[in-house]
Design a protein that fits this description.
The structure is a homotrimer.
Chain A (H helix, E strand, L loop, with lengths): L10 H7 L1 H12 L10 H14 L6 H10 L4 H15 L1 H17 L19 H15 L4 H12 L10 H14 L6 H10 L4 H15 L1 H21 L2
Helix pairs in contact in A: 1-2, 3-4, 3-5, 3-9, 3-11, 4-6, 5-6, 5-9, 7-8, 9-10, 10-12, 11-12
Chain lengths: ~240, ~240, ~240
């Protein structure tokens, strides 16, 4: 970890207004939840970045991106997460994030070929599964908004989700974190199931919530807890 | 369209962090959803501004306001939308937006008499409809918060909604877009019905969602889809 | 009240884009809701600050903090509210707020010993009540996220809620305002009941909503109204 990452950038400002918060930033956050077992530092960085971008909070984003790179996230994974978050949390969140972290990437000499490519070779599509998803959504909503239905197929499920720069498990993890941060708990089951199908463990998912509570606030995580619980129980029932 | 509007201002920054996002901004956004038929560029600008203001995203707001003016929105309509959004998305969102776009209005030489007037002659009130609305809300919530009930009548339904600077259809459209952006889908039916009563077509409403998906993120629009569907079906049933 | 507080800082900017909004800021906001009876100026400041911090809106926060101090809120109470809002609305909201108001505290010569202390002597804990709460949450969610369950006990209910720098009534009030601002209406009953148990009156709670409508937007308050109503009715039923 480089020296720039050893304390949060606003810690001195925080201390002059709120010594308790500065202390808790060190004790409960940096030396607390970040050092818990059960979820890698890399994964903690990934969900933390997803939360900050989704909440359009850019002040300490350069610090957290440096931290993420130190923790093993690749520049291309962070870059790819921004594409995902543009679609899932709103375009301008990703734009604001890109502006905020541009200097971090420049300072590290990160080159264009390390970033989210314009036209990568896409992952293989599960044609049967996608046909079923598209058919369901189409039946429900074609009469309401054919444009949303079409773009969901073309831009999301036949492109975005197949981009290779972020592993399917990680792409779902970024999405789940974003849904929690933006208070869209009802959309969590579909994406949490995808994350679990692609290798996230129940224990890791629980630690994702432990991590996110600090960055999204406790209530958004408590809204997600019963949703996670139901997904876990349904999967246990299905496994029998 | 003036030259300032041909690419988004942060595109170069975005490209240096995320080439895919820069590409998609051009292909899926500017040359994509913005050029779809079914909803005028003017209306796309109106709902896009409503989303950006409601999410307090001001970085590219000057660009989008220039774009909106090029697309035929009048300065007074944008100004009036800010009044609506102060009440419907929170005061400081409108304040932040006003600060952000001040220089755009100045550069175009827009004069005070083109803007949202302090005391315009109000539109005629549907006294019977308003009496019914006020009575319903009063019965429900006078015992909880008489102040909210009173201000809703005095400031909103006997003033704001009757201001002539934005047509009733457009005022409802701004409100619906803001509700979707702020995740208040349950309040959508009342305002969507008003928009449809005042001339918005079902096809246009569907395109509003297609447009908003990019700026609010897909999940917020998917939360609104079943609500729109129910409103459409209810109106179809009532029409029989 | 000092001269800096007699008009909102962005009023001139607002006027040049939206004269109606500038006028309403004076008539409906500063000379309107702020001067209503039923809730003290101090309490109006407290819930307004909670809303602004929770929405990460810092532009006029220095003005509102000066206003709050003029209205009788102590620096330590504002400082303590930030600790509460870090946990309840997301860490970076509190960080952004601290950075924004640092100069206000400095200009007033506020000293460290007036601020939220790192390790104050905590209020007495209701051991039986806390044991029941912890047991309920543990039974529900230990299998989902033991980390959230543990941190909720250790950091929130055996520390944060017992910090003496903000009276229990005020700490709950800040929390309720934050929940409304962030659209977490389902979590309101628990915290509203705590506020009422600790001395907030029904009339004051109704005025809190009247105040918040302007800063969170009307729809978020209308989402909270039925929740408040149910809490009031349940308490009336229990009192019989």
């Amino acid at each position: 970890m480089n020296t720039a990452s050893t304390q949060t950038p606003a810690l001195t400002n925080v201390e002059s207004v709120c010594p308790a918060l500065a202390h808790l930033t060190q004790s409960a956050l940096l030396d607390g939840v970040w050092k818990r077992p059960g979820l890698s530092m890399r994964d903690r960085s990934l969900v933390t970045l997803a939360a900050l971008v989704s909440l359009d909070q850019t002040r300490e984003l350069p610090y957290y991106v440096n931290h993420a790179l130190d923790n093993g996230l690749k520049p291309g994974e962070i870059s790819e997460a921004l594409v995902q978050l543009a679609f899932y949390s709103g375009w301008e969140n990703a734009v604001d994030a890109a502006v905020a972290i541009q200097s971090v990437f420049a300072a590290r000499g990160i080159k264009t070929d390390q970033l989210a490519a314009v036209s990568p070779k896409l992952l293989a599509l599960d044609e049967a599964g996608e046909a079923k998803r598209a058919s369901n959504v189409s039946q429900q909503f074609d009469a309401v908004s054919p444009g949303v239905v079409q773009n969901t197929t073309d831009l999301l499920f036949r492109d975005l989700w197949l981009r290779p720069g972020l592993a399917p498990r990680d792409r779902s993890l970024v999405t789940v974190a974003s849904l929690i941060a933006t208070g869209q708990a009802l959309a969590v089951p579909y994406h949490l199931n995808r994350a679990l199908d692609n290798g996230l463990t129940h224990a890791e998912a629980g630690e994702v919530l432990t991590q996110l509570a600090f960055y999204t606030g406790w209530p958004r995580v408590f809204s997600a807890l019963p949703v996670f619980k139901q997904v876990f129980e349904q999967r246990a029932a299905n496994a029998q």
